[in-house]
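Assemble and predict.
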Amino acid sequence: MKVIDIARQAKEAARKLAYIPTSTKNKALTAMAAALKKEKKRILNENRRDIEQAEQREYKSSFIDRLRLNDKRIEDMVDSLKEVVHLSDPVGSIIKKWRRPNGLEIAKVRVPIGVIAIIYESRPNVTADAAALTLKSGNAVILRGGSEAIYSNLALQTILSDAAASAGIPAGAISMLRTTSHKDVEELLKLSQYIDLVIPRGGENLIKRVISLSNIPVIKHHKGLCHTYVDKGAEYKMAEKIILNAKTQRPGVCNAMETLLIHKDIANGFLPGIGRALMTKGVELRGCHLTCRILSGIKEATKLDWHTEYLDLILSIKIVADLDEAIEHINTYSSGLSEAIVTTNPARAKRFTTEVDSSCVYVNASTRFTDGNQFGLGAEIGISTDKIHARGPMGLEELTSYKYIVRGKGQVRR
Amino acid sequence: MKVIDIARQAKEAARKLAYIPTSTKNKALTAMAAALKKEKKRILNENRRDIEQAEQREYKSSFIDRLRLNDKRIEDMVDSLKEVVHLSDPVGSIIKKWRRPNGLEIAKVRVPIGVIAIIYESRPNVTADAAALTLKSGNAVILRGGSEAIYSNLALQTILSDAAASAGIPAGAISMLRTTSHKDVEELLKLSQYIDLVIPRGGENLIKRVISLSNIPVIKHHKGLCHTYVDKGAEYKMAEKIILNAKTQRPGVCNAMETLLIHKDIANGFLPGIGRALMTKGVELRGCHLTCRILSGIKEATKLDWHTEYLDLILSIKIVADLDEAIEHINTYSSGLSEAIVTTNPARAKRFTTEVDSSCVYVNASTRFTDGNQFGLGAEIGISTDKIHARGPMGLEELTSYKYIVRGKGQVRR
């Protein structure tokens, strides 16, 4: 099937999906979960081909690990699909409703976006998650995974799409670019007449390439360079707990902390303790000039460090003169995802949450909570670092648009 | 000032604008209104230079008319600025607030988008309107008008920006590309590190060019190819009133009707009357094969007609077999802005509003109501034909994004 035909079919499917009942979508999700379970062996066989290819190409073991499926990981996918059944369907819900003086009744109603293309890398479970969330929100999806997972992804998409079709979902609702050709992606990104939104999930290069090639709106899922600022007068114990959690509980994810900012008045009192605690947990510290004076023996941070998302047990530390410098540093270097202040002062907490320009701003809590499930939004398609349409965790509601339905009795404009 | 410096200054201004009090913004809007009034002569002088240039270049008189300012048009701009003072400030309002089982308090709070670039053509009043709406919603704006209005726009921007500054608005909040160079626009559209959103307002070529050049999210304000469908069993009188209004009350605007669809069962009964009424109003009719049999002597519509936004006293008419064909025609040819059904049947009204994929869908009312003021949203920056971020009339709320403010007592993630 040609790329344009895939897109055209997806658009046709989207038209029907827009008003398909919730019960049909849930039936399909249940069938999809059952099919994955049933076809476990086939999926594992196809995944083995990807793994062999990756080993031949001598990819890093962490990369191969992300690629690998096993019984447990397939069970997790099955569970995720079942969970989406229980999320409430956003389509058709009334956002607002009002009546105009001329008697017109206006309702702002949630509708699906239409056709969403998702371009992603490595983990094959994204195939199942993305298919489930787009389907539940009434959208057709065109998936495009990385070439490293092509066999796994093709198997998953075929199984999911067939199961959905058997439950009454129109053909083309869950589709995939079935080659690893870059030209196909380029062609896809120009088809704004059929595709309404592109979501790239992956590294910086992938995102840049998508933005520069696409004629279709893009919602970026960028990196997470997150900060924690410890204010003067903060409770040391609370600060320590939050910092250790934000840095070490899962350092490889986007909402982990990368840079710690500390008010100069508490540097001498607070830094030695937290420094020891972090080093005990195996964290490499890189400090500003002043930090290095207090924590002797640690590496000095360069300007590059303030720009770096380590995704690892490394932390840059900077002592700041005041809240203004902390906010300025964050607004300069942050990726705009998730920042925290630890403070006992309500006025400064207010200033921090108001002036820091990030999707999620915390007072006395860990940046690690930036997550659809943790927020209670249900499963997420990703975390948007854009300010247009959706910001922060993107759940089902964020996969919808709206329309105005206006009812009259013959009103005309004067 | 170089383009990059304008953008950088706008970003700095946006940071401060994000938390500037409503009262300061209103003071600035009032000062801007007073300044336009005071500087009327200067504005008219500069506008004369644009008009002379346009006349030398032998532009169409309708084009020159749109360009021309006079006392009345400046007074209208002054009034619009004053109206924005009275609109409520969306910034800081809480969209949603909830508490998680772990005690975290999450608030989803409206914030400005940041820096918005608006690229527009011809009418100089857009300069004042865009400056007012972006300021009230806490955004910095970079304006880029057409070369045909450069003198008027520069004068307006200088006056507005100076007045805003005198009321405490940071420098760079209302800025403008001060040349007519295309290169400057190209450079601007790559500055995604400083600019958060681009809104092109103008013809199809302008929009296409912006989309293909921009690395920044774009919200399109496309054309309006609007339809009215008269269902079998509709009240003829109501249908006639709605059709005449949608076609003739102001044919040159995007929410005017361009194509009329009529159910085959009422074609013989309804078409002769409405045909006469439209022709009496000076409307040229272009009908499908069946229409031409009933309304003899009218021009036959070609496929091109179904694709054409006339913006003029011309109407294409098609007889359709049923509601399905009407919906199919609309979803194929519409620009997705504004469509109406005239019907007495609630089930078919429901199907129409559900299945038609347009921003505003009307039951028994004129498509001409698609407008921020008519909807009660206040002044509008334009009407989005996109499904991402904002759809339909864009008022102050649509010029905002949101952030999550999360308050804890030391919570960490497990």
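The first strand of chain A starts at residue 94 and ends at 99.
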